[in-house]
């Protein structure tokens, strides 16, 4: 038990020091239906395009690489009691479901239920873009506005053992559900 905690702490410290972590830059209030925007790297190079689909019954965003190939799709699930969004892979197969799990006064908890693999949990303040995504207590991604002075911009760090397309899509889904009117 103590060794497991020590291993988890060591892995999370390695993440915090940037070992194998990929850095992305994203825009706040970016998920308006019909709006397109880019997800950039540290140097400002466009890596992924988020394409908002207007005039649909469901809120839908397609995430494409810079060559225009779809890597993931995020869409709302209408007529559900709990707010949730599905994530599909490039072939249209559901790979995850993002759901709000618990509402608290200062922190929200979200779950990313993966079709294959362990579920992910989201801890922190999603409204202010200050949260982490964990798998079994190990940090695999972190979202923060602290890294940028530019208004309406926040960072997303994803660790080496995470599926980047799923985490990027989950971040788009969480942002859409946390800021529904933006």
Automatic annotation (TrEMBL):
Top-level taxon of origin: Bacteria
Pfam family, one: LOR
InterPro entries: LOR, LOR_sf, Tubby-like_C
Family that this chain belongs to: Belongs to the LOR family.
Protein name, entry field: LURP-one-related/scramblase family protein
Lineage: Bacteria, Bacillati, Actinomycetota, Actinomycetes, Kitasatosporales
């Amino acid at each position: 038990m103590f060794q497991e905690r020590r291993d988890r702490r060591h892995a999370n410290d390695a993440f915090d020091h940037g070992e194998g972590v990929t850095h992305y830059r994203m825009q706040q209030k970016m998920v308006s239906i019909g709006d397109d925007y880019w997800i950039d790297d540290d140097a400002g190079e466009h890596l992924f395009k988020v394409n908002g689909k207007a005039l649909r019954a469901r809120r839908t965003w397609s995430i494409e690489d810079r060559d225009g190939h779809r890597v993931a799709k995020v869409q709302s699930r209408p007529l559900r009691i709990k707010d949730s969004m599905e994530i599909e892979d490039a072939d249209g197969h559901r790979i995850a479901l993002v759901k709000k799990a618990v509402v608290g006064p200062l922190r929200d908890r979200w779950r990313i239920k993966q079709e294959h693999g362990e579920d992910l949990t989201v801890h922190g303040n999603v409204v202010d873009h200050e949260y982490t995504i964990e798998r079994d207590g190990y940090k695999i991604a972190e979202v923060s506005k602290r890294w940028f002075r530019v208004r309406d911009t926040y960072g997303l760090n994803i660790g080496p053992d995470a599926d980047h397309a799923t985490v990027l899509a989950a971040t788009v889904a969480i942002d859409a559900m946390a800021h529904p009117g933006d």
